Amino acid sequence: MKNYKLKTKxxxxxxxxxxxxxxNNFIEKCIFNKTNIIILCDNITHEKCLPYILNxxxxxxxxxxxxxxxxENSKTLQSCEYIFSKLLEMNIDKNxxxxxxxxxxxxxxxxxxxxxxxxxxxxxNIPTSFLSMVDSSLGGKLGxxxxxxxxxxxxxxxxxxxxxxxxFLKTLGKRQFKNGMIEIFKHGLIFDVILWRKLLDFKFKNxxxxxxxxxxxxxxxxxxxxxxxxxxNIRKILNFGHTxxxxxxSIALVKKKDLLHGEAIAIGILVEVSLSHLYNNLSKKExxxxxxxxxxxxxxxxxxxxxELYFWMKKDKKNFDKRINFTLISCIGNAQIDNFFNxxxxxxxxEYYNKNLN
Length: 358
Ligand SMILES: NC(=O)c1ccc[n+]([C@@H]2O[C@H](COP(=O)([O-])OP(=O)(O)OC[C@H]3O[C@@H](n4cnc5c(N)ncnc54)[C@H](O)[C@@H]3O)[C@@H](O)[C@H]2O)c1
Description:
Elements: E1 4-7, E2 12-16, H1 20-32, E3 36-42, H2 43-48, H3 50-56, E4 65-68, H4 77-89, E5 96-102, H5 104-116, E6 122-127, H6 130-136, E7 141-146, E8 149-156, E9 161-165, H7 174-191, H8 193-199, H9 207-225, H10 242-254, H11 261-279, H12 284-297, H13 306-313, E10 324-331, E11 334-341, H14 343-356
Helix pairs in contact: 4-5, 6-7, 7-8, 7-9, 7-11, 10-11, 10-13, 11-12, 11-14
């Protein structure tokens, strides 16, 4: 089984199937330095992932665990306050490290809390969902939602280290697994046509294949982030599918609909592919191939209420001068940032998307 160590300019990412040695070395170093360790989980990762970590290093058993409810509904300032209060109650000092053990929700909120508590303690990520392994545990975007608007409160800060262990995928259901696949497809669409082609023959059961595409996805994301950490330029290509996707997630939060992040992004990608075809020279042939591929893998539905979607997109973080900002592609593997559209143009894109679902 291949194990990888990826050194970025600022932190180390370990990828493998059982990173026992590196993980144990890290924990032992913390203990030697008398660093307090706190583990943050959601109720599902507490049950499915925590025992594995405690088994890897039984010394961890004496450290406190903070658990919050799983799901996007927990990515709020209220949950931050709950975690802050627990840290304060335990009088956790600056020489401490928070271990974020969970999916994107835990990595986003845990990183934010760690960065703010007493002006900042260290944190590490142990991503346990496929989505967090290929995307959200990396790159240092941390945040929570506000009034159901996505990621409105946050900051940029990097973990000390990331341990990606595909052992965790064993307890992940098929729907959650596919949820993570979409961000890898996105990496192919915006940056790497060879990765995109490789994904057309996705080998679900092949661990080496999974490790390879995790590694490829990480290296794409890192190469972009190292050029533009604060999302001011090229990093915006990673937002492909997210202007529409985040608005759909907000609607689902308000209406209490069961929609995963990746499922929202899959639809967002197809709407933004439609805009790319209408306004950015994406060929009909590639447009239809992308529709066919994404439709075969994800739960895709028509968008009936365009005004409602527009309302939520109006508060997207990438907007500028009250105009809605999209990343588009001109061909598979090549993205362009900062495309601004008005309501009528977006409506055309959504109508084209709806028509292509027939
Ligand atoms: N910061 C970033 O750069 C970035 C990038 C993409 C997405 N995100 C954010 O990430 C979140 C989505 O991430 P997610 O899909 O991982 O969501 P999540 O953290 O809510 O996890 C999804 C579900 O899977 C469960 N789970 C996690 N690991 C498991 C395991 N090993 N076995 C069984 N169940 C497990 C969780 O408990 C949860 O119920 C969104 O909030 C999104 O905005 C952030």
